[in-house]
Known about the structure:
It is found in: Cell membrane. The protein is mainly α.
Amino acid sequence: MNRFTTDKVLAHVILVLIGIAFVVPLLWMIFASFQPNATLSLQISKQWSLSNFGSILTDPANQRAFLNGILLSIGQSIIVVVVAGLAAYPLSRYQLKYKRPFMYVILFSTSLPITAVMVPVYELFVFIHMTDSLFWTMMFLSASGLPYAIWIMKNFMDSVPIELEEAAWTDGASTLTSLRSVVAPLMIPGIFTVGIFTFAGSWGNFFVPFILIQTPAKLPASVTIFQFFGQYGSVEYGQLAAFSMLYTIPAVLLYILGQRYMSRGFSFGGATKG
């Protein structure tokens, strides 16, 4: 066996092990969600039941938790897309004096872990009485997601030819009109990319809502999932798996919906000619 064959086999073994590490928990979640008396072991039940899903969907607390999570995620996605688009426009179109240092600050901010700033953020929220509020939690989540969104939006906006905007300006369009009517429609892949990543990050965010929200009725689904871990180590594995299945549906649907737009790419060559 030569060196290239050994490297190829080793790479495949590593990929298979990584695949197993992802597939086994997924299979456990699927099988356990249909088992009334599910355990931590992975096993295929002889009798399949929807009782776990019925218990989750008919519980008003779970309905409220999913609604809170959707409200936080959609609200943050809309705010981040709009603000990042407006912030990325001058960075993409104008020659600003401190644009390069500012972009470096944005790049550094994307790598800053949110856990590193949560203690001063929590003290600030307590000082100005903004704790236990879905709205202010959404605002903080939006602010924390802006550096990455601005960076992505600027790169997409750089690909939109300036000649298209200049043609609109010649026809009397304002800067805001050209941004809304010319640039934004051509940036749909970028808008969907930022929106999907923002939604997925907010939907799965446990730490920030757990710190900033205290009232159980205001907690999103990413936090209330811990209700299935009872005292003395008892866990409702069946309901936990069913809750997890339902919890993944919005993110999966959004990826399926947005994939069609993201795969289009940019093809502006014909638009700039003539």
